[in-house]
Design a protein that fits this description.
- With 246 residues, the chain is of the alpha/beta class.
- 25% of the residues lie in helices and 24% in strands.
- It is built from 5 helices and 11 strands.
- Strands 1, 2, 3, 4, 5, 6, 7, 8, 9, 10 and 11 form an 11-stranded mixed β-sheet that branches.
- Helix 2 (135-147) crosses helix 5 (221-242).
- The longest helix is centred in the last third of the chain and has 22 residues, at 221-242.
- The protein is globular.
- The structure holds hypoxanthine.
- Residues 86-88, 161, 166-167, 183-185, 208-209, 211 line the site of hypoxanthine (HPA).
- Residues 86-88, 161, 166-167, 183-185, 208-209, 211 line the site of hypoxanthine.
Length: 246
């Protein structure tokens, strides 16, 4: 049984070095995950992979069934979840193609199913979310990156916006004033749901573009795709290195 799950975001709908052993359709009380789970072996270790936006990249960020995805991964025995997320860079050092292991989140999303604790409760539940990412998993990612001589940014606040449109320049100014270094659309509620199910969850964010008002006049899908293609090469390398150490 795979202890480690990988959720691939935009630019990572499959893992080339994953030796696939099977696919599994998992039903959950919250509906269907983004697709069947892909079981396989990466660097000699069993892992389970799920493409957040579906294997054909057709599910937009606000339509992802985050509850079903996280539930399904736990259902098949995952304890560690490494989430890969494309983001825009707000701070000057967040150059396109860089990898970032964020340590904080600010949630600007709305109208997403964001908890498992809402019906049939004996008691209201409030999980601690002071440190939204799992410290051990973050350390493993950072340690693996350092050991491999990989250039990663080891702390950042990830502002999660609703999407699917990109932000206005003024919105990015506000995110920066709030303390966000990167902005993406898929960080939440995924991280909170993983915490509710007591999974050890951390994120590898890949900078796809400079956030609105921070770079070129227009942000094009072509630029985003080009940066992600290159950034994901580093992500795959990092995953191959870190997975055996978990
Ligand atoms: N904003 C929000 N989400 C994103 C961006 C962005 O600039 N780039 C990639 N995902």
């Amino acid at each position: 049984m795979a202890r480690t799950a990988i959720i691939g975001g935009t630019g990572l709908t499959s893992l080339k070095s994953l030796e696939i052993t099977g696919r599994e359709v998992v039903q959950t009380p919250y509906g269907e995950p983004s697709g069947p789970l892909t079981h396989g072996v990466l660097s000699g270790v069993e892992v389970v992979f799920l493409a957040r936006h579906g294997y054909g990249h057709t599910i937009p960020p606000h339509k992802v069934n985050y509850r079903a995805n996280i539930w399904a991964l736990r259902e098949v025995g995952a304890e560690n979840v490494i989430a890969v997320n494309a983001v825009g860079g707000i701070s000057d050092d967040m150059d396109p193609e860089r990898l970032v292991i964020p340590d904080q989140i600010i949630d600007y999303t709305w109208s997403r199913f964001n908890t498992y604790f809402e019906e049939g409760l004996n008691q209201v539940v409030h999980v601690d979310f002071t440190h939204p990412y799992c410290a051990q998993l973050r350390e493993a990612l950072i340690g693996g990156a350092r050991a491999g001589g990989r250039d990663v940014i080891v702390a950042a606040t990830y502002g999660t916006t609703q999407g699917p449109r990109l932000e206005t320049a003024a919105e990015v100014d506000r995110l920066e004033r709030d303390g966000c270094n990167i902005v993406g659309m898929t960080g939440m509620p995924e991280a909170a749901l993983a915490r509710e199910l007591e999974l050890c969850y951390a994120c590898i964010a890949v900078v796809a573009n400079r956030a609105a008002g921070r770079g070129e006049e227009l942000i094009t899908m072509k630029d985003i795709e080009q940066h992600l293609t290159r950034g994901m090469v580093s992500v795959r390398g990092l995953l191959e290195q870190v997975i055996p150490a978990l």
